[in-house]
Each structure stands twice: as structure tokens, then as C-alpha cells.
Protein 1
Amino acid sequence: MQHAGIRQAGVLIPVFSMRRRGDLGIGDTAALREWIDWAAETGVAFIQLLPINENGIDESPYSAISSTALDPIYLTLDISEIPWLSDTDFARADDKVGVARQAARIDYPAVRRLKRNLLELAWSEFASAAQGLHDEFDRFKSAEQEWLADYCLFRFLMELHGESLTWDKWPDATNTPEKAREHMNSLRARDAQAVDYRLGFFAFAQWLCFRQWRALRKHADARGVKLMGDVPIGVSWHSCDVFFNRDDFHLEWCGGSPPEGMGQSDPFFQQWGQNWGIPLYRWDHMQANGFVWWKNRIRRLTEIFRIFRLDHILGFYRIYAFPWRPERNHEFIGLSHHDAAEKNHGMLPRWFLRPDDTVENKAANRADGDVRLRAILEAANGAEIIAEDLGWVPDYVRPHLHDLGITGFRIPHWDCNEFGHPTPGNSFPENSFATYSTHDHDPVNGIWRGCQHALQRHHEHPDDNSGWQAHGAHNTLRILSEFAAIPIPPHGPCPPFTEGIRLRLMKALLDSNSRYASVMITELFAIDERINTPGSTHSHNWSFRLPWSLEQIRADQRLSEICRKFAITISLTRGKAPY
């Protein structure tokens, strides 16, 4: 059951973006602990995170190799967490972190190499740890055996075949779960100690992960701050989950989104849409077994998070599907539908199972979503659920989410009436999540400045393309200013983005009727950096780091004043009773 009537302010900040004194080139659990304390002092009710499961090779948190295993890259590795190592061991690691600690962006290969070496050292010396830690590790392995054994075998096989290899390219002797287990047993018969040592290492890393994240949950609860997690709609085709549970997935179809009819720089995206490469769920099979995979996934998530976001909620009703993997996308650029069908055995991208093109299909899709989401609600056991219901939303989705008590998004500059005026914040549904941007968008300050740039470009170089962009930019600025009651001239230049405009935008969002209102950390400090650009493989994706640690923010007069004003704004807005 959701918690009606409690206005909550939040901040979205990926763990990888955090800094602290002594980190190893990326945010970690110790840095998040500092932000939890900051949130408690500031009146922030929840900290919104991106997925923290173990990443695949592209370092996207939305393509994890396991829906359960946590990413060791976020571990705090120091004497407080690994007391059986020496100060000298950590000093050596500190010497090796080099420029990665001060870098503006995350150097994932360097950070992973450094943290992996420390973890390997910690495991090699674990025999010298206190008996209580050994007992705790044994209890963890016993309690988590249901998923941990398969995960450790999967990681063992990844290591055996080269970390970049994917299971569909593994040798015939290990490319199915049955053959993989047989192969491991044959290796163990030859050298049990070596095999068990490697399996033990992967279990050890997960024990440390869950140990630190569960401690964070306990600390956050004590400080009155909620951690908000994120559940991607899909899992990586090359994940542990798919390898061991193939009956739950359509491996010949990949989920994605249709072309949006707007200007896109990527030619495939423009013609065909986005092919995310995630295998589709065999919902019929999952429903027949009581949605066991989904329920286990959600229950484990709620051990850490009190709130979680369901990514692409539309995928629970129907999803756009591609009958080829993303590595083949280039083959179809520029082809007609007829030629593409000939090339692909008559199969083209389509809605799966069915489109929303008739009343009957809409009713069937709604009914499918109802069964699936009720299973999620059951597994959530009272945790607060936020549905990412953005994009082209069928007309039945939001009423259905309302009936289920699931919170949907409200983005002010997208939420307009038929006359182009934004919905006033005091008219937002109480059970909604208000935000200007997500990790896939520019922060609102970046939107404002980007619109100004487009208007200036058109003024200096008027042409058809810049005219179209200038019209959209002016409209976006008009909507934002109307929503936040910022006076701008109907004709003439719009005001530049200033501290006053930033405060008006923050206040308008927090003053809305929405139960949840969240700003990105980049919006709080007016940083124009973007966390991710959908449909691209830019090296800047998922690598943004704050320019300062929280310690530096507290010590800097300008930055600390921003935080003080934010705390005052929260107290003046979120403390009010619902309209």
C-alpha cells in the first residue's frame, strides 16, 4: 500500500557520480552514507539511485549480468571494511589510483582493475580474518544459495572463457546449464581446491556487497531517509538469469521502442526505433509458475530499497520487439519494409504480443498488465512503487496504475493541455512523481540554456532547420516559465538562466501536489552535464562525476548556500498538507 498524504522531496544521484576523500575513482557505499546524512540534515526524504546490479561490459547499469548480484565496483575497500588487511595494502592501492581519483569522468577499466586486485588480495588473506566474519560469510552463502551458486558458476565460466566472451559463444562443453555444471564437476575432480577457491571468491565479493548495502539500509532507516532503487524492464541477453532460465525468455526477440517521429541523429533509431537487445519475457511461462523469477527479484531488491522505480512500465502491458539482435542493426538501415522482411525471413519489428490498435487489443493488454503488476505488488510487500510511464502512453495505462495505487511520473513541460499550457503543479495527481528530468534527459538548467542557444543560433543564422528548432525552444521556455511563474517577455530575448530562475523552478516543482518531487543532483547545482544519451554509445554515458566531494560542498560558501536554500524550500513546500 502506498503512503498517501506524505509529501517527499528527493534527489537523484547515481552512486558512481559521488566523490569522497579516499575513494578509488568512483562513488562507493561510504560516499552514499555521507549523502544519506546530508539528506537527513537537508530534509530530503529519499535518495534516488540508478540500478546497482553488476554491470555488463558496456558499463550501462541497465544491462547487468545478473538481476540479483550487486556490482563490486561500489564497494568501500578500506581498513574499516576489510580489517584483516594492513594499512600498507591500502596505501599501495592509494598510490595506484593516480589520476582516476581526480578525473572529471570515471575511468572504468582502471577502477575495476584496482578494485578487483584489492578484492583478490582480501580473499587470499581472508583466512586471517576474525572467526565472526567467517561465520557471517557462511550464513550468507547458506541463506543466498538459491541464486548464489548459479551466479558463482556463471562468473567462474566467464573468467574461464575470457571476461569479454558471452555465453552463446562459449565452447560446446559449457554452453548450457547442464553441460556447464558437468564441466565444473570434471574440473573439480582434477583440482577441487582451485575450483572452490575461484567459486569462493565470487561468493566472497557478493557477501561484501550485500553486507555493505544492508548496513546502508539500516543507516538510512535510522536517519529517516529512504533509498530509492531502480528495476530495469529487461535483463541483458548475456546475463546469468537468461543462461540459467531460458524457458522464461524469448531469445529470438529483443525489446525496444518504435521510431518516435522526431529528428534523431542515429539513422537506425530514426528509421526503426531503439533496439535495446534485451530478450522478451515469456510471460505465459512466468505466469504459469506464479511469476517466481519476478517475485524473487523484487523481494531481494526491497531488502535494500524502501522505494523503487519500475523502468518502462509500458513493457508490462506490451513492448515493441525486434526479430534481430542489435549487432545486426546496421544491416537494415535504409531498407524498405519489404526488403527488410525478405532479408529476415519475413519477420519485421512489431508490438508484442499485440498492438494497441483496437478496443479489444487495448483491453487484452490492460488485462495482461494487471496480472503482472499485481504479482509485483505482492512481492513488494508494502515498498513504494514508482512507474516510469513516459513516452507514448496508451490511454488505459495511467487510469490502471491509479486503480492499482502505483505512482506515475509527471514532467511539467511535457504535461500540457490541448491549448499548450502546462498543468499547474497544484493540479498534479497526489499519487504522482514530479520531476523535470530523468537520467536520460538534460537537466532543467541544461534545457533552459540549450533552448536559449537554439534561439540565438536562429537569430544569427536563420534557416528552415534553425527555425524549427527555435520554435520548439521558445515553446519549451514558455511552458517552463509559465509553470514556475517566471515572467518572460512574449517577444524579445528570454532571460538567461540565473540563480533566481533556478530557485523558482525548484520551488514550483517542490510546491506541486505530487506525493514525490525529485531533482537531479545536476539541477541542484546547475551543472549542464548529462548522465546518459539514449541510443548512443558515447564514452561519456554513465561516467559523470560531481566536481566536488560532499566535504568540499560543505566547505564552499556558494555550494553550502545552495544546500541551505534547498533545505528552506523543502520545509516551505513539502511540509504542507496535500491540496
Protein 2
Amino acid sequence: MLSGWLLLCLFAAAQQNNVHIVDARNDQPIVFANVKATDLKSGKISYFITDNEGRINLNIQAPTYLQVSYVGYQNFNDTLKPGKVSVIRLLPEVFSLDEIVVTAQYNPTSTDRSLYSVNVINQLQLQRKAAPDLAGLLRNQLNIRLIEDGSLGTGMSLQGLAGEHVKILVDGVPVIGRLNGSIDLGQVNLQQAKQVEIIEGPMSVIYGSNALAGVINIIPQDISANAFNARASAYYETVGVYNIDAGASLRRKKHAFGLNLGRNFFGGYSSVDTSRTKQWKPKRQLNADLTYTLSLPKASIRTTMSAFDEELRNQGSLQPPYFEKAFDNYFTTRRYIAKADFSSKNTNPFTANVSYSFYQRIRTLFYNDLSILEKTPVEYDTTSFSAFMSRGMYSYRTISGKFGYQAGYDLNAEWGTGERIGNDRQSITDLAGFTSFQYKPFDQLQIQPGIRYAYNSKFSTPVIYALHVKSSPHKNISVRSSFSSGFRAPSLKELYLNFVDVNHDIKGNPQLRPEYSRNIQFQLSHKIEKITYATETEARFFMNNIDDVITLVDLGNDSYSYVNIEQVRTMGYNFGIRSSLYPIFDLRLGYGRTGYNNRINNDFGDKLTWSPEFTGEITGRWDEHKLSVSAFYKYTGKRARIYQDTDGNLLEGKVDDYHNLDLSIMKSFLKDKITFTLGGRNLFDVTNINTNGSAGNGGVHSSGGTSIPVSWGRTFFIKINYTISKNEKNTAAR
């Protein structure tokens, strides 16, 4: 009986794979690493956490696909076979030039293997910058310029194209609620972001309208593999920003739940004290996200509900003769999103999602009597927009990897109601089918053509096409090139919305025509990756031609409307280098020039006006002390602006150049449970820059002002983050 017991123990031990996970440089164990094991025969998925020796025990009876992740290290992906003892050596993420990307991919893949050129802002960069929203994160990015408005918030341009040309996604769902063509980046928080992916150039084949300049996709954190995880953070900035947020997640076998809550507050700011009226308006934001994930043997279903509420106060000047009464405009923005995702678990996955988004902006005019502290509402104005999206894709790739294809559908329906669109209900629907093919005749060449055809309820649509080619003439050299077309139908706001407040008078135009674009891109990159050193250099060229561009023009008396102009052309080139030396520093440098041309009835011919940019990011690391110091710099060169003088003549003005420098120090304590990040923003104290054009977003505007806002000046900040986890040691989670 004893001998039988010993044989049973030996047999059980033989079925255990003692996986040891260590640091590739010094073989030190990595404790509390997240491990996901997928049985390739049954499809069963299990989660594990490494112990104090960096080990887990797996009962492997069939080939198992193993995925290992830990903050600060590159992800590991490989297949283990039964009966083998494995040592997995993780490379610190300081070496990683191959972050995993998901935007527009057949399957999640590394940036090095992606056919598209994807700029990834990873989790470490997010932590170092400690930016509370998307506006703060993108401020120092090459090829991106922010457009500030104290009332409308922060817009952006990409490759010289602004507003409706940039598609903002959160986990693949478009953010609705544009004002003056742009999403307010200050309303897009990063509390749950794992990384931000930026693809420059038209992505209309896959993402349809509003993607002529590119796509920005915020990828949220997955629910932790721990049995229980909770975090809380607080952020303070000396200009009067007070933010707090907290979240928790719970995993029980095949069920996982996540909840995140946040409150942001800004007290308003003016460089010159004007008592009540502020250049940068006071605002308060609330947000909540609830997530549930069901993991089945062959599929995963994820549902998410998100809510956002902002109150922005445009306080008026005190009225004579006693200066104790004023008219105040309160703007309330509400955004709700409900989403469900389905994903199959196999080599050739099918993914689908459906979402409903609701956006509402309410303007309330108050008569404020400060002598008795009483506000009386005297005028209301409510505008609402809703959007329904359904999207499905099937991806197939042969075992050899030489051939693959992707086919899918995309349904987008948007409708709006309110006084500002004539007390009527207006709607627009777009239903599209798209497909692309990948052909890899040999390892050094990959070709992907793609087409998209759509039905639009208001406009005729052309066939959209794209051709992407990636070649690797040498193992350290990659060449990417693409030629693509794009199409954008006018939005409901451009067609019908009349937006009027104390600072704006913008009228819609039902006679607008769609935009059509053509784009060429070329990128050459060279990479060297060693155990203690890695560097990548790249050069990129792009050119965009857009016909019938929709922009704002002055109608007189500070009133504006959308019109089609003949053509806009942008062209540019960039040079960049990323380098890491372990464990000393990380370095990123970039230089670029972007040329812009507005052809308006041939008034400016084919002349390009050029504007330079330079970016720098450097981080010093002291891993033994859990300490890093980072500096983020950007020079934004002079740029041209087309404007209209009082006689109706079109003139070319200039917007001055400026510099921005941010600094941050990050320190962790108690085995990374507590993290402090403190630093300064806009250390050169830039507030406004001179211009002899208008403060618009690059279209044709009136000459209404000699300066435009950039920032509220030099500030200092501190962020504190606290995380606790309860590990279900070596226990299957699904």
C-alpha cells in the first residue's frame, strides 16, 4: 500500500510543471506575477500568481499556452508541453520596444509585427506623467497640437488635421459629443487606462467616418487576476485642481466584477484677477464605470456601463450700479455608455460588440443675486445626441501564417433632438462592410489590401480602399508604406446644430458635402535590442489631400457657419529615436515639420506653410530605491493661420512658437503598494501666445484677437496611489 501511495505521488508530480519566473538579468524571482494558462485542447483558462520564490505549479496534461505579465517587464507568451520544468526569464520593460497593440489588428500583436505604425503610450509612461486626462497626456506628443478654449475645453490636431478628422475611442467605442468639431480631451479621463494607442493617417477602411487623420484608442485595464484588488488615488495641482478616484475588482472562477468611481474639481483660473469671470472656467466632473466579465470555455463576454457628468460655470461680470447681481451660464454635460463585447477563444477569433451612447448638454442661464445668495433660472437650453454602434469581425490566418483575411460589418446610427437643432429630430445612419487580406509570400514581406463599402442615409458613399506593405530587408530594419483613401460625411452638428453662447455663435449648414481624402505614408525604422541596451530610430513621411473640407467661416458680426472649401493639403516628415540603458535611463527624442495648405478658390495656390516641432523625454531610474525622475519637453514652432479681415479679404497670419517643460518624480513604497508622483507642469510659465489670426482651430475665421490661450501657467502637482491585493495563490480563476 505504501509503494502504491509513492507511485501515485510520483505520477502526480510528473503531471506538475514547476514554472519558475525570474528576472532575465539577475535571475532574481519575480513575486506576484500574473500568469494566464490556456489549455489548447480543452480551451480551459486558469489564472495563477507566483509565490515568494517566483514559482507556480501547473497540472499540464496537454499543450498549454502561457502568458506571463508583471508591471515593469515585457509580457511573455509561449506554449508549454506536459512533463517539462520551465524557467521563464522576463526582460524588464525598459528594454521593450514591442508593446502589445490591439487597435486595427487581426489579433493582439507587438508594435514590431504590426502592419501599421502604432505609437503606444504604455503604463509606465502613464504613471510617470500622472496626467489626469487625455489632454495632459498628449500635450508633449510629436505631430499632435492642442487647441484650447476656456469654455469648449481642449481639442487637438493630428498631422495638421483637426476636429472631426480625429477619431477618439475608449475600448473601441467612439466618444460622442463634439463641440466646434472636437471632443473635449479634458472630459476623457485616464483612471483605468492600461495604454493609449495612436495610429496616424486615414483608418477609414476599418473605422469609417471621422478617421481621416487617425485614431486614438484608450485601452482599459483588464480586471486583475487576483481574487480581490482595490486601489485609491488622489491628485492635487496648485492651480486649484482636486481629483480623487477609487476602484475595486473581484474575481470568482468564471465571473469577474469591476467598479471605478471618480470626482474631479477645478476652481477656474485667470492670469489677471477679474473677480468672478475666469478665462479658464470652473468645473466639476463625476464619473463611474461598472464592468462584468463572464469567461466560458470557448468564449468571453464583457459588459460595461459608464457614466460621466460635468458642470462648467461661466460666471458673468457683476452688473452696475451696485455690482451685486450677475447673469451666470451653467453648462451641464452628461455622457452615458452601455457596451457588450463578445470574443471567441480560438486561433481564428470572432469578435463583436454593441454599444449605446447618450450625450446631453444643458445650458441654464441664472440671474444671480449675491446680496441674498439666490440664483433664479431664467433660460434653459437642452441638446441631446444618441448613438448606436454594432461591430463584428472574423479573423482567419493559415497555420503557416502566409495568408489571412479579416471581414466585418460596422453599423453606426446617430440621432439628436433639442432647440439648437430646430426643435426637431435629426438622424444619420451608416452601415458598412469591410474586408482586408494579408499575404506573406516570405518572412521579409507582408502585404495587406483592404476595402470598405458603406450605405449612408444622407450621402452617397464611394468604395474606400487601402494598401499597406511591410518589409524587413534585414532583421533589424523595417519598412512600412501605405496608400489609402478616406471618406467623412458631415456630422449632425455641422449640418443642423446652432451653437450660441456668450463666446460663440456657430450655425449649422444642411447644404454641406462629404469630404474625400487620399493619404501616403512611408516609415523606415532600425532597431537594436540587447540584454542591457535597446534603441530604435525611425524616419517617417506623410501627405494628406482632402477635398471639400468642412470648416468655419465668418458671416459677420462674430457669427460663423460651416462651409466646404476646395482642398486642404498637409505634408510632413519626422525623425525619432528611442533608447534604453538598463538600469540607468530611458530616452525618447523626436523632430518633425508639418506643412499646411488651404486652397480656397486658388487664393493661396499650392504653397505650403511649414511649422517645426521637437520633443524630448528622458527618465533616470534607480530601481533599487523604487525611484525615477522624468522630464517631458516640447517645442512647438510658429505656424500659419488663414483668417479674414474686416474687409472680407483672406490673409495669412502667424501664431507664435512656444516651449513646454514638465517634470515628475515617482517613488514607490511598501512593495509598490503606495506610489507618490510629484512634479511641475509648464515650467516655462507659458499662458498665451501672440497671433494676428483668430483663435479658431485652423479653418477660416475672423481676426478676432491678438493672442490665444495655451495653458494656465506654471503649476506643481502631487499624486498618491494606494493598491491592495488579495491573491488566491495558485488557484484556477476560470
Protein 3
Amino acid sequence: MNASLCTRREFLKAAGFGAVAVSLGERLRASEPAASTAPGRKRPNIVLIMADDMGYSDLGCYGGEIHTPNLDRLASEGIRFSQFYNGARCCPTRASLLTGLYAHQAGVGFMVGNLGYRAYQGYLNERCVTIAEALKSAGYRTLMSGKWHVGEDRPHWPRDRGFDRYFGLISGAANYFDPTKTKADGVVRKMALDDQPYTPPQEGFYMTDAFTDHAVTFLDEYRRDDKPFFLYLAYTAPHWPLHAWPEDIAKYQGKYRKGWDKLREERRERMIKMGLIRQRWAMSPRDEETWPWDEEKDQKLMDLKMAVYAAQIERMDAGIGRVLRKIEELGKRDNTLVMFLADNGGCAEGGPTGFDNRKNGLPPGGVDSYMSYGLSWANASNTPFRRYKHWVHEGGIATPFIASWPAVIKKGGTITHEVGHIIDVMATCVDAAGAEYPKTHNGQSVTPLEGKSLLPVFREGKRKGHDAVFWEHEGNRAVRQGRWKLVSAHGGPWELYDLEVDRTELHDLAGKHPDKVQELTALYEGWATRCGVRPWPVQRPKT
């Protein structure tokens, strides 16, 4: 059932915001420490929500035509970032998001396989702490529902890394209706409830709804708890396979017969009017691997693929609405910080028209289909940028980022052009909770926090940001410093862009500014050495 938010109730204003700093170095080892707050001070609840494989322009509040009333409302009540960045792929993003470190520092420089080096071990290492571990020791109840994907085996599951309760998918992408029907023979998808394996029911199961159901249940279970809560809700939507309820698909079927070219134009115009992007940034050309919509031979199938993709996003948005209504019912919305983002840009896997793993003649959408929507639609999802998930050009790393916190963010509907990065989320949570990032955990020294809190942006609209931020994934490399971005696709040369005048990365200035290329290259190489980045493909150490 698709439901949007009811009218928000009037809340009493918070008695005053702030919190005393809680020293975590020793207390991170305590299982249930007592909370410490000053009289009249109230620590916020924190909800962190992430979509999977969703493009920059898919949401209504980021220029899309998909019906996302709950996220749109969060944006209207809070703040949207136009220049927020993820880590280009699911596992690295999740590692950085949870730890406030670059993915290599946390042990997940690639995916969940162990490539033989600390930076590429495939699970969170002992020299990082998660947001859950930090906040639990500051007196928070820590809850998670959704996709984990930063450690396949015990003791690297959510309950091993600070979460009181967990339901979800330990592994990566899965069949939404029946996770036992995997993408290929030999692939196993693990689900868990708390620290036990979980097998979904044979009838009536849909992954997105199940994540929402358990998030709401967890909140309800602790409704009388005097502790603030941290909820991490990590959806798999709209990651392939294209699976959605028939009634949701029906809302969109036929609406994409206009094609990807027209869709990109319409989205860009709305984004310009919203103030998310600038008119001076030319639209990136249609990807050279695809073709004009008028030349597409199976427009009916491609319309249906995009309809299923849109339905997946709308169902996720409806679930977010259910979570927000539960928080309102508990009387806690005013002092709850909600943050939303995506783990990478739209996914081009499967080529221009996407893949069909089953090849059984069934249309996309149902349990026995297994398809992606392809590069052509991903090109539209990432409007106005170029490239996709995996790459570190803007199309791969630019994400919507919405923050809503009624007690603190007073000017709703604001768009900020401050640059933010996933490493900043941990710092923001610790700052909001009045906690301290630890120096040690379980007898191990902890890698110093890389992120910077976003609270000054929430409160005052600006902050002193990073000198530079960095990326590396599968040999795709980038560094951004101020207006300048140096970026390279794996095996390609460095490209230099002035993002103030050319955020769509169409005019390479490397030849005109060799000194800037040299300066940023040195910055990147220093960061890569510090974080343990290795040449791609990573060669396993000789034994």
C-alpha cells in the first residue's frame, strides 16, 4: 500500500539543544553504559536512510518525475545539498558512511572479498568504530534495518559492530520477493534477524517493505525507552533486479514512452529552476554507447523497465513515510535528525538496454525475472552528469543529500552548495549526540576521524570544509579541492575540471593548467599512500 505523510502535528519546542561531551575511549567497551546529559538538555534521535543505485535526479525534490512525497517533504522542511558525495559503489560507501573514514582505511577498499591487504580485507577492521559503536557508548539505542554489505561472516555482522537490533540483508543485491533465487548459480544471499540467519516467508515477502516493517517494529519496541535512538535504514531499492508490486508498476507504465532524451531535458530544466544546478553547466551529451530514443527498437520493454525502477523508488519513499509517521506518533519528530542519501550514482550495468539474467521471456517486475534498466536510463538518472556507479566522475559520486531536524534546521526548503562527503556523516552524528570520537576501541588504537561535522551548515548555512576530498575505486581516481577536480577513469589520463563553471565535466583543462594538475596529483598520491590504496587490479601478495 502506498501512503504519504499525514499533516505534521504541532510539537512543543525543544527545551534547549546540546549535550555534554561523553568520553568514549574507555566506555566503548561497556555494553550498556548509563547516559549522561545535563539538565534541560536533550540529545536528538538520529535516523540515517540510504538508497541503493539511485541517480542524482531521480527524486522529485532533485528534479525527477517519480512520486516521492515523503522525501520531498523532508526537503521542504529541511535542507538539500547540491554538492554531496558518496564513494561510487555500495561497499566502499557503506564503510565510509559507518566509520567516518575513507573506505580503504576501514578495510573495504574494494568489495567484500579479501584481496590480501588490510585496506582490501573486505570487512570493517579493528581500527575503526561504527556510528553505532560510538553512539551506543554515549547512551543511544542502536537499530538497523536493511543492507549491511561490509562483512559477510561473523564476527563482522551488525550486532558485532554496535547495533542492538538488526534485520536485513547481510549480502549485496538480492531478489526482492525471494532472496533464494539469486543472480547466478553458486551465489548465496545471507539475511539475518539480530545475529541469527533469517529465511523469508514464501508468500507476501517484498524486501523494501520488510526493511520498513522491521524499522517501524524496532522503534515501537523501544517506544518507552528513555534513551535516544540511532536508526540506520539501508534500502536495496532501486538496485537491480527490477522487482516491484504490480500496482506500483501500473502507475508508471507508459509514462516513459517519451524516452531518455526527453526525460533528461525535462529533469535538467526542473533542476535549474530549483537552484540545484546552474544554467551555465551544459548538459552532458547522451552517452556515446547508446542511441536516440527514436532509434530504440523495443520502446515498450524499455518503458516498462523504467516504470519498474520508478515503482521501486516510490515504494521506498512510502516506507520512509511510515517510519516518519511512527516517529511522529512517538512524539519525537521535532528533535529527530533525519538524513537521506544514495550509495552511488545510477547503474549502467548490462549495457544500453540492461541485462536479463533469466532469459525466460518474462517481463521485468516479477519474482522470476532478473533484469537491470541499463545504461540508457542510468544516463537519465544521473542528469546532468556523465558516467555512472563505479566511476568517480560526477555521475558516479554525486548524491542527493537531505537533512531534516525541526528543532535545529529552521529555514525549510533551503539548498546549500557547501561540499559534503560521506565521511562527514559519522562526525555529524557524534557532534549532534554530544559525544567524542574515541582514540581506542577494544584495546586497539582507532584511526583518527577524517570527516567534519555538518551541523554548522544545518545551523548557520556554512562551515569550514575540507581542504580536499578523495576517491579511488577499481582504479578510478579523483581529488576535489575547492572549485578544482582532478579525475581519471581507470587506465586513462588525469582530467582537470573547474566545477564552478563546468560541473558536468565537459571541458578538460589539464593541458591549460599543468601546475594545478601536478599540485592535485601530489595531494592524491599522498592520500593514496596514507590510506593504503594499491594499483588496480590489486595483485594478491605472494605467499
Protein 4
Amino acid sequence: KYKTILLFGILLFLLFGCSKKKSQLENDIVAYVGDYKISARDFQLNYEFGFSNLKTKGIEKLSYLEYMIDEALLSQEGYRLELDLSEQIQSKEKALLNELLVEQLFKKEVDDKINISDHEIKEAISKSSVKWKLRYWVEPNLTDAEQVYSSIQKRGYESVVKELLNNQEVKSSIKDYETDYLTWVDIPPTLLEEIKDLEINKISKPIKIDNVFIIIEVTEITSNILSDYDYQATSDRYKQILFYRDQKKQSGIFIKNFMNPKEVVTKGKEFKLILNALEEWKKLDITPLSFATAVENADNSQSNLFLLKNHYENFLVTFKGGTLSIKDFLAGFNSSEITAKALEKRKLYNELNHQIAITVRNHFFIEEALLRELDKSLDVENELKIWRDKWVYEELRKQYTDSVSIDEATALEYFNAHKYQYKTQSGAEPTFNEFVNNAKHDAYFDTTFKILENKIALLKKDFPVRINKELLDSVDVQDSEKSRWANVFLFKGNGSRMAIPIVDPYWGLKSAANIDN
């Protein structure tokens, strides 16, 4: 797992590549669904990060657009039924608004103040001409790292690392601890600073990176001569790399300057209450429930969760001019970010400490963003709308299909009508008993698709659909040459929310079932 310390490269999604400018694509409408508009830009982004199996060969763009239209139709009907006012969607919208407010504040205070000059870009490209090959070893503490360093100094890297690998339960090859050619882009700045003057075949002293200690040997250094074309061809990429590096640095400075005057203090007793409850939540294996919900539902049999429940109003955090209670913290706490297991107490402690810091930080950032009325910004309103549309569609689809239940008689009827879909390894004629679960699965999706197809057909009368086929054909998109199941997903920051809502994979389940069988 430590290999990512070296090979962490920044994944950049350069969403250029369209024959028209971004602003033009946003103004060009590829489809109307009643008064609802699907812009060429919306289609392009949705398509490029959408599921490959939703793109029918030969009519990839049209088939994908039709799924977007189907969702838009259901969404429009959902608004008519006021599903957007449901408690569930309102709760999602509130959580997303808070997230977007934090993003907007960072945009104003960090992103918008970053200026990457042409000189910096050229210098970065020039630096990339130097490449290193490295060998390394990682230890979790300084004492062990120093012992390994001393052994390597005496006996050489290969001899020591082979011996260490032989003593491990999980066998690895020495090759697993050697890199390909790396440039400055691929190496964390703090590590690069330590090894930039390291001679070939010399061993570095243990270097602390992300709470572990790494020993480095440079095995090769090479340098290429760059042409004018190299500078022109990579200029945009390196501008993005420099931007994201500067963004990380400036974000840290902004957070420090913003938070230090608040004089935030976390109370030890209340921290321990939450930590013990988290450990119990993990031990009881009830993590499908959010931590906050588990606390609310706790009874006497869940002693630590119940104890926390009875101390909701205790102050967890004090700061200059105010306090945050345990209840306040739980309201903004994303327990899915706690990945530690119940017995990993140190990791659990560190993750909780980090989440408290993030939650408290976001509390102040949201407060500041609202004071600046950033909730009224066009970016926030637009992103709220596209996600609200998606949630309304999902809610209506659930209402139409959740009551569907398939019994054996219905599954048998489906199986007999679609026997050609089911193949046995021996080539013998398939029997219902062999494929009863498959048949129930396929019959369920066949039924729900028919329900939705009928609903969509009726909705087209209320919300007429118009497609600009000529414009659709002109939208430049990137398609994978790999398997139709190969997909690329784009997520926002370090979270689990996708950067943009894409077409629901549900639409591909029926065909997927047929192909898999």
C-alpha cells in the first residue's frame, strides 16, 4: 500500500477536446424535453463519464441521449408531483448545499487567487526532462527504519530487502519495490527535496512521509532534450499540475489563517464518548446504519452508543465566542469516512480526530459563505439543480417500481419465453430449476422496464421531446476502444460524490442480465 507514496501522480481530466468552445456548447441545445433543456455541454460531460454499456454500438450518442431524455421526462413528472419537497430530497439538498458552500469559499479565497505564469509552466516542463528510477523500502517507525538503513549500508539494498521479503507472510518480489522512470510530477515535493541531490546507488537516510519512514536508492538518472513542440503540446497539462499543487499549498495556508484565531478546543471527555461509541458501532457490525442513526436508535444493550445518546447536549468543541455540542457534530459528521475497524484503535482515534477537525472547519466555512451570500451564486444554484433533477427522477422511478414482486410462476413464464438467453456449460437444454434466480432477476427488470416505458410514452404527450440531431452528431466525445464495460468515473475532491450526475446504470441492467446469461 505504500507504493502510492511514490507513484501518486495527479489524475487530470482535461475536459477540452470539443470542436466548439465550452461556452458555445452550453448555449447550444441538443434536446428539449418540454421546457427542459439538455445542452451540448451537459450531454458531452454526461456521455464521457457515463456507463459504456448504455451506448449502443453504431448509435452511441443517440442511444445515450435517449436515456438522458427518459430521465428528464420522469424528473419533470416528479416535480409536478412535488417530490422535490419530500423530506429525503430536502435533506440531500441541504447536505449538498453545505458542501457547495465550502467549495465556493475555497474557490474565492484560494482558486481565484492562483496565477500560473508562462515562465512557471516552461520551467516545469523543463524539469520534467529529468527522470529517476528508484528502489525503496518502507517501515512504520523510525527505530525499524534506522535498523534497515544500517543493514543496507553494510550489506547492500538487494541482500537486505530480499531477506526482509522472505520473512513476510505475504510474499513479494524485490521488483515490487522498484519504480519505472519518474519525473518531479510523480514524486511528492517533500520526498523530492530529500532525494534531488542523492547520488546513484547511494542510500538515503530514513525520510518521514505521511507517518511512515521510507529509504530510497536512486538506481538511474536520465535527461531528455525537449523541443519547442514538447513545450507547446504539454503546456496545458503542466499548467493544471502547477495549479493543483499550488492549490494544495494555498489551501493549507488559508485554513490555518482562518482557523487559528477561532481558538478551537476539543474536549477530551466528550471525544472519548464518541470514540467508544464508534468502536461499539463497528463491533456490532451495524455500519449500514449511519453512526448518527445508530446513536438515535440505541438502547441499554448498546452501552456506549446509549451513553453517547444521553450526552447529546454536552459541548464537544469550544471556540472563541461559542460552542458546538455532540449533537451539532453528529449533524454534520459523515461516518462513511471512518474506515478503521473496531480493533484498530489508533487508526479509529486518528480518523475521528480528523473528522472533528473537518466538521468544525466546515461549520465556520459554511457560516462565512452564507454571510457572503455565496448560496446565491450561479454555480451553486446550477449544481443544486442538476442534482435535484437526478434525485427527483430516482424518487419517481422508485415509486413506480418498488412494489414489483416476482413469484415463481411469473419467473417460469418468463423463462419459457426467453429460454434462448440461458446457456449451460454442457450445452444441454437449460432447465428452470438451474436458472430460477436468474429468471426472477430478469423477469423483475423486464417488468419494471415495461412499467417505465409505458409511463415515459404517456409523459411524452405532456412534455414533447425534440432532438437536434445535426448538433448531436457534431458534439465531439471521447469513446473507449476497450470493453463496453470499461468506464471512467470523475469524483469531486476527496469525497464519494461524482462530479456530475450521469445516466443511471439501472437502464443497462436488463441487457446486462441477458448478456451475462
